[in-house]
Amino acid sequence: MTNPTARSAPKPGAGVLELLRLFKDDQAAADRYAADRLEQAKAIEPRLKAFEYLPQNTARRPGPLSGIPVAIKDIIATSDMPTTNGSPIYRDHIPTADAWVVERLRHLGATIFGKTVSTEFAWRHPGPTVNPWNSGHTPGGSSSGSAAAVAAGIVPLALGTQTLGSVIRPAAFNGVVGLKPSFGAIPRTGVHPLSPSLDHVGFFARRVNDVAFALSLLAASSESDPHGRLLPNFQIDTEGGVQPLKKPRLAIVRFEKWSKVEPEQQKVFEAAIARLSDAGAVLEELELGELDHANWNTINTILASEGALIFGDLVERYPDRTSARLKELVHTGKACSAYAFLAAKALQEKLRSRFTTDISGFDAVLTLPAFGEAPAGLSYTGDAEYCAPWTLLGVPAVTLPAGFGRNGLPLGAQIVAPYRQDLRLLRVAKWIESVLKFEPAIPTI
């Protein structure tokens, strides 16, 4: 006799929309799912080290995300769980209120599935999380635990943040889909700031449909976040998902740093270009000279200046509980003149406005998310130079898994669209995903 429980059990790595379709017809599966994920997390957490805190209660709540466990990066406030910000200063800190995005997820019926490891205050001092594909390599940062938890199949959706490359890069390193929406698309109230001019809330999942669905539910504005700007409204059908934009016109952007890209990453990128061209996409090389030359210094001037203001008093009060990397950020920021900061902000606005013109006639940009595989060791979370231009501009970006490197670690491709054209980006990404047909298995931890 067929076991009905086994028949309806979600397959490993099931996505959000796939789960919601299953749960619609099988309430028992919905009731079990988060509890099953918790058991799996407890089994592999001693090796993966993706979580600062696991949930005590996985009971299902009503709503459009009912039954879906969502992991929360540990710089995002939760009123019923510690929020450590990746720092010993906040080791036992429980906020008095949820972050806006957490409150919204609860309202939508999601199960808040613990807190994932972040680098210290989302800057460069890493936590203990390992890459699930190879524990001798970094998962990237700063959203280390969120990316690893999705890659390991513990949760189908996780929240991250990006100020330089902290969603796109770890998504690529772990072989999952990462979405950094347009700047201001999701209120950051209750998210510990690093650089308010650059901080984004984003997502990790296994499919484009799932990050698109999450954004459709969470995109909003709030008076408590002065940088917020409401996206054009869109809805995602849970049955069909995003409607792909077929045969798009894509601008290939390599930047001058292409010469430093690992050979295997170059090969994966060229193979993706060939497949997309064969499938009908129009692809043309595009140079973005001023953005290429100016973005790294500009974004770091803004980040260091604002970071010094946010963390200056903290590193003075707690010199024994703040890292050398955070102290260095504060030192660098204090050395920046007001003129340098204001000039960087002016250039940021100029480049953002120009970008729409620069890619006029194209549906999206196709570029890299990183120089190659996740670096060996846990002390360095990887180079963000391929992410920084798009974070500086505040434009939406998606990374998709696209292959493997010589060490058997995932490699990705990044797609970028103009500011507030998030739906167009997701439609292009859905088509590219369907053409590449690359979906990494869940690694054995």
From TrEMBL:
The entry sums up its family as follows:
Belongs to the amidase family.
| InterPro entries the record matches | Amidase, Amidase_dom, AS_sf
Boundaries of every Amidase domain copy: 51-426
Q: In this record, what's one Pfam family?
A: Amidase
Q: What is this protein called?
A: Amidase
- Record GO terms (molecular function): catalytic activity
